[in-house]
Write a structure and sequence with these properties.
By secondary structure, this protein is an alpha/beta fold. Helices cover about 35% and strands about 15% of the residues.
């Protein structure tokens, strides 16, 4: 069985697209665990949810997400955000309003 994504044994990733509404453990907890790993690798965490209230966005920020996108996610917007992130040499892009 493969280690969970937040495990210290897991591979590192540059970007993680993470649905908030996961079974057993929600995306907020997964994000907290990924951030708690520390180390040099700090992936861009993009939360994806059907909820777009300010409180939902704040909860995602508090959990460690860099971006929070509301479904349905426009692929062109996602591509532009990822391009902005790579051109910024790993700095989190501005979240769309």
């Amino acid at each position: 069985m493969a280690p969970p994504p937040w495990s210290s044994q897991a591979r590192t990733f540059d970007v993680v697209l993470l649905d908030i509404g996961l079974p057993s453990m929600d995306g907020y907890e997964v994000a907290r665990r990924i951030r708690a790993r520390g180390g040099e690798s700090r992936p861009l965490l993009v939360g994806i949810s059907g909820y777009g209230f300010d409180a939902d966005r704040q909860r995602a920020k508090d959990a460690g997400f860099d971006l929070y996108l509301v479904k349905p996610v426009d692929p062109k917007l996602l591509e532009a955000l990822l391009e902005q992130w790579t051109q910024g040499e790993g700095e989190s892009p501005s979240s769309p309003g």
